[in-house]
Structures are given as C-alpha cells and as structure tokens.
Amino acid sequence: MLEYVMKRVLMLVPVLFGVSIVIFLSIRMIPGDPAEALAGEFAEEEYVEEIRREYGLDKPLHIQYFIYMDRALRGDLGRSINSDLPVLEEVLTRFGNTLQLAFWAMLLATVLGLTAGVFSAINPYSKIDYGSMTGALLGISMPSFWLGLILMGFFSVYLGWLPAGGKGTWAHLIMPAATLGVTGAGLVARMTRNTMLEIIGSEYITTARSKGLDERKVNYVHALKNALLPVITVIGLQSGYLLGGSVITESVFAWPGLGRYIVDAIKMRDYASVQGSLLFFALTFAFVNVVVDLLYAVFNPRVRYGGENR
User: Fold this and answer.
1) pTM, entire model
2) Which residues neighbour 291 within 8 Å (Cβ) at sequence distance 6 or greater?
C-alpha cells in the first residue's frame, strides 16, 4: 500500500508540471493588461510600466514562468495584484469555505443518490424506479446557475425563508449546497441503480436467496457492498468537480469561496491569484483521486496494490 501511494505521489509531479504550463499560458491569452487594470484607465504610461516592473510583467514569458515555478516550489505563489496579499494565504482562507460547501453538497448527493439508486434497483420498472430515475435525469440536466436562481427566487424572494446570499449561519449554506448536490445525486443514483441491477441478477445473489437469507441482507449487504466500487469512482470524481466547479454557484450566492475568488481575479487580470488557485485545485483533485483508489481496497479486499488482484 505504501509503495503504491509513493508511486501515485511521484506521478503527480509531471501532471502538475503540465497543468502549471497550461494555466500559465491560458491566463495570459485573456485580453487585457493587469498593469493597466491596476493603474486605472487614465493612468500615465510611466506608472503602468512601473507596475509591470514591480510584478515582473516586463520580462519574457519563459522567464516569468521559471520565476513563478521557482517560487511555487518554495511555497510562494506570489502576491495578488488586487489586494497585495500573499496568494497562498488568500487561497487557504477561501478554500476552507469552498471545502465546507463541497462537503455538504457531496454528503447530500451521496445520501440522496444512494437512497434513490438502491430503491430503484430493488423495485425495477416500478413507479418508484421511474420516479427516482426521472428525478435523477432532471438533476443531471439542470444547469447549476439556473437551479440556483430558481431556488433563490422561490425560497428567498417569494417565501422569505432563506437568505439570498453571503455566508454566516447554516441557513446561508442550504441553497448553494443543494444547487451543487443535485447534479451529483443524479449521477450517483443512476450508477447505483445500474450496478445493483447487474449484481442482483448474478448467480451468487441467486444462491444467497436460495439459502433462505433475508431479502434485506441480500440487497443491502451482498448486492450493495459489491456495487459500491463504481459508485465510489463517481463520488470521487464528483468531489473533485464540486471543489473545482463551484465557481458559478459561489458567484450566484455570493459565497466567499475560492471559485468566486478566481472569478474576481480573472476580471482584474490577477495572474498570480488565478495561477495559484487553479494549481491548488489541480493538486486537490489529484489527491481526491488517490484517496478514491485507496478506498477500493476497503470495499473490495480482492484489490491488492503493488501486486496482482486475487
């Protein structure tokens, strides 16, 4: 297990190196000059050039990249042009808010998705099945920004039950977590149903029933446990998506997370903030994938790392 973890960590090095190049070049393709954005529309050219020199924007691109990577390897992601604060400090502060939102959204998606998928699988082609899968399809199909605005209009404007945006009490968390969790719940439900239906029709499940085992034990212990491997994959991918894909939801609900921070940084052409945030997201997503792979061995003892599966 330890050998496998070390191999996966080493594999992250070229991946993150490639991601850093893509991020570095992509942000510089956006029209606009960060020095001009910071100096203001009517600033003199001398002042703009001074800002470029201060933040190293006057150097060739390859020199800027090597300076950026040299600092990043030492834990320095640069300083924000907008706030003049260390990017790492701001990223860590806002990532805590994004992590909180993603955790509750993923918890909601997992509970709803597993429940709907299991009930659909043990009641195939029934009203429960059709209703659950229709709800799952709607959840997958609805754009997050549209769902967020609908929830805001109904629960905040019409009913006045929940705050429209911001962060403070648990009430501020309900609508953004629901907005992010609905799509994940639909994907988990469909994967759980399809995998359980396949397993329920297998020979060892038929044998378990023929031995007189309780139907609930057959469904929830034997079938569900063996159906969890592909479901864990979906949950892991959705966790990474929720961490990196919360940009729109955080903007709609004015949630002070890392996604909204990236949007504001792009508007200001704040290269250091965008690069640091996206690199942090990439590292987090890679870490989630490693954790998901390790969870395979927990739910399926036949999985062995560093050797052949038994």
Assistant:
1) 0.77
2) 236
Q: Which amino acid is at 281?
A: F
Residues 6+ apart with CB under 8 A from 115: none
Cα(302)–Cα(310) distance, rounded to whole angstroms? 5
- Whole-angstrom Cα distance, residue 29 to residue 21? 13
Cβ atoms of 47 and 6 within 8 Å: the answer is: no
Backbone dihedral angles phi then psi of residue 268, each to the nearest 5 degrees? -90, 5
Task: Give me the residues paired with residue 86 across strands.
Answer: 79
For 35-62, the pLDDT digits (tens) are 777 777 777 778 888 888 887 878 888 8
Residues listed for the chain: 310
Question: How high is the pLDDT of residue 309?
Answer: 47
Structure tokens at 88: 């790492």
Q: Which of 29, 23, 24, 28 is nearest to 65 (CA)?
A: 24
Question: Token digits for 111?
Answer: 């509970």
Give the gyration radius of the chain's Cα atoms. 24
Q: Where are the alpha helices (DSSP H) in the chain?
A: 2-28, 34-39, 45-54, 61-73, 87-122, 127-141, 144-151, 171-200, 203-210, 215-217, 224-244, 247-252, 258-267, 271-299
What are the tokens at 242?
Answer: 């929720």
Q: Which residues pair with 79 in a beta bridge?
A: 86
Residue 277 makes CB contacts below 8 A (sequence gap 6+) with 87, 91, 258, 261, 262, 265
Widest CA span in the chain: 86
Tokens describing residue 239: 């966790």
- For residue 308, is pLDDT > 50? no
- How much is the average pLDDT of 194-204? 81
Residue 77 in contact with residue 275, Cβ under 8 Å?
Answer: yes
What is the rounded CA–CA span in Å between residue 286 and residue 5?
A: 12
